Amino acid sequence: MQTQETLESRLGQAFHRLLEWAPAAPGGLARDAEPWTAHQLAGVARAFDLDAAHLETARTWAQAVLRGQGAWAWDADQLALSANEVPLIVQGRLRRLDRLVRQRQSGAWWVLDYKSAGHPLDDPALCQQLHTYRDAVARAYPGQTVHAAFLTPQGLLLPLPTPP
């Protein structure tokens, strides 16, 4: 970790790491389930130089995602495939998709991007980036439905509009 990273950046990275480590479970995660071990939480605190209060903030954000509108993306019964930090070459550069899932029943793909910012749909650069990721997955799976959405610490799933 670089020492010049802001607290906001470190919280966002911790939020991502916790979601990366959250397991998919049959029926999804129970409302009161703690998906991370004490060892994992301590490791996140160390890795991102967070005190107990800030670790709790990142944990609360991640739990809101896991219990919110996008909770289905961790429900093993609904998923044919799920992967985190999926490498993808976009315009000659290596990128990583936060989470890529394929729904079992519909066969639709979802590119899911975690954003600690409250209103990512209001940021044209973030939307363009997610559009680019969705388009890259669509090229990899021609003829298949590919959706993209942001997942936020408020528990919201904010889909990008589907192209015509």
Write out the strand line-up for the largest beta sheet, numbering strands in chain order: 1-2-3-4-5
3D shape: globular
Q: What is the first-to-last residue Cα distance?
A: 42 Å
Q: How many strands appear in the DSSP assignment?
A: 5
Provide the structure class. alpha+beta
Largest sheet: 5 strands, mixed
- Tell me the fraction of residues in β-strands, as a range: 15-25%
- Provide the low-confidence segments as ranges: none
Counting H and I runs of at least 4 residues, what is the number of helices? 4
Look at the structure and give the mean pLDDT: 93
Rg measurement, Å:
16 Å
Indicate the percent of residues in helices: 25-40%
Descriptive key words:
164 residues, alpha+beta, 5 strands, five-stranded mixed beta sheet
Describe the structure.
- The protein is of the alpha+beta class and 164 residues long.
- It has four helices and five strands; from the N terminus they run αααβββαββ.
- It has helices at 7-21, 38-47, 52-67, 124-140, and strands at 79-90, 93-103, 109-114, 146-151, 157-159.
- Strands 1-2-3-4-5 form a five-stranded mixed β-sheet.
- The protein is globular and about 45 Å long.
- The termini are far apart.
- The mean pLDDT is 93.
